[in-house]
Amino acid sequence: MNDSIAPGGLAAVLAHPDDESFGCAGALALAHDAGATTRLLVVTRGEAGSPDGTADPTLGDRRESELICAARAIGLDEVSLLDGYADGGVADQLFDRLVDEIAAWLADRRPGAVITFGPHGVTGHPDHIVVGNATRWAVERLADAGTAPNAVYVISPIFDPSGNRYDLSPEEQSATHRIEITHVAGRKIEALGCHASQADITDELAALRAAVDGGAPIYEGYSRVRPFVPAPHPDFDRALL
Ligand SMILES: [Zn+2]
């Protein structure tokens, strides 16, 4: 870890390069602009992100570069990748080890709030689901040591401009917080554009550009799951930190 970066701030723990750009680029960009430290932990290198899902180390290298490109667009202070977790195979690894590794990463950095995936991982991808569950268990482990972040949010993409395409869990359907990201939407578009190896950015980019061009306010949704609050939170339209 880079000791010159202040502890605290907002951290996201996600599964693949590009999850940050789809999921929470706006909230991270806003936190960065507000002076908070912003960090991202990604569990896999996305080496299976090809049309037929075949793992390819070269693609992993490319996606790591795309992730760095997106991190610059968003304004992330630190990006970390775990070793030893295959794209598409996170659930095959020892869950307890993943919880330990995420807990250690969080304990070193002490973010005030953490964003991760909810029970259906937005898209239902098994890696998303396992990483979200492991992150929440990691926070419980930190709570036992008195070092848990103040809040854990799961991505609740009900304000997705392209509409609700997924089978979301109740937690993911009921955002407690709605973050207006209109004035950083250009950076979310730029970050998504970094992930040029991924065919599914095309629809998201088109929908986001159309929403921006139409002058509509752009939102990201989050559900605060720790401490639990019913939706909507009294600070529905305020920042996560
Ligand atoms: Zn993903």
Describe how the helices and strands are arranged:
Elements: E1 10-14, H1 19-23, H2 25-33, E2 38-42, H3 57-74, E3 78-81, H4 95-109, E4 113-116, H5 126-144, E5 151-155, H6 170-173, E6 177-180, H7 185-194, H8 201-213, E7 219-226
Parallel strand pairs: 1-2, 1-4, 2-3, 4-5
Antiparallel strand pairs: 5-7, 6-7
Helix pairs in contact: 3-7, 4-5, 7-8
Summarize the structure.
This protein is of the alpha/beta class and 241 residues long. 39% of the residues lie in helices and 15% in strands. The model has no long low-confidence stretch (mean pLDDT 93).
Rounded to an integer in angstroms, the radius of gyration calculated over CA atoms is 16 Å
Order of helices and strands: EHHEHEHEHEHEHHE
List the uncertain runs. none
CATH topology: Rossmann fold
Which word captures the global form?
Answer: globular
Helix content: 25-40%
CATH class: Alpha Beta
Helix/strand-derived category reads alpha/beta
Number of helices: 8
Q: Order of strands in the sheet with the most strands?
A: 3-2-1-4-5-7-6
Bound molecules: zinc ion
Quote the average pLDDT.
93
What is the CA–CA distance across the termini? 22 Å
- The CATH architecture can be named as 3-Layer(aba) Sandwich
- Mind telling me the CATH superfamily name? LmbE-like
